[in-house]
Amino acid sequence: MHNLIHMDEMDIIERMVTTEEVRAPIVRAMRSCPVEVSIAVLGGAWKMTIVKHLLDEPLRYGELRRKVGEVTPRVLTRQLRELEQDGIVNRHSFAEVPPRVEYSLTPTGQALRGFVSELNRWGAEYVESIARPDR
């Protein structure tokens, strides 16, 4: 495995920071390794659950909130904004009354399908294993 960037790419990263093209936590992670970049993009509270529920269909905010679970509106909104800024989620506002907003995954977000599926499988197996009395 290798680091994500080389010394000659530092100028590009510094430009990203100053133009705010990329969120600061991601830029910091880029200086370390690709695993840290993944965690910086997807490691927030509820982010993977949001992605999981958007894999099959676009959802309105209320639908998404019900599916995600015990997330506060403030946290869900913040995570959706970060996922949108990071190119994982699309936010589409319809010019209707009352206003309607729908969230969907970008192609980059859709590319997480296998990863999310594997995390879901592993999590279910883990819960099952810790629930066994012979653990």
Structure write-up:
By secondary structure, this protein is mainly α. It has 2 domains: 1-42, no CATH class; 45-135, Arc Repressor Mutant, subunit A (Orthogonal Bundle), CATH 1.10.10. The protein is built from 8 helices and 3 strands, in the order ααααβααββαα. It has helices spanning 10-19, 24-30, 34-42, 47-54, 61-68, 73-85, 107-110, 113-131, and strands at residues 59-60, 89-94, 100-105. It has a 3-stranded antiparallel beta sheet. β2 (89-94) and β3 (100-105) form a beta hairpin. α2 (24-30) packs antiparallel against α3.
How many DSSP H or I helices? 8
What is the overall pLDDT average? 88
Distance between the termini: 34 Å
User: How large is the share of residues in beta strands?
Assistant: 5-15%
Sequence of strands across the biggest β-sheet: 1-3-2
Brief write-up:
With 135 residues, this protein is mainly alpha-helical.
Blueprint of the fold:
Elements: H1 10-19, H2 24-30, H3 34-42, H4 47-54, E1 59-60, H5 61-68, H6 73-85, E2 89-94, E3 100-105, H7 107-110, H8 113-131
Antiparallel strand pairs: 1-3, 2-3
Helix pairs in contact: 2-3
Keywords:
Arc Repressor Mutant, subunit A; 3 strands; 10% strand; 58% helix; mainly alpha; 2 domains; 8 helices; 135 residues; 3-stranded antiparallel β-sheet
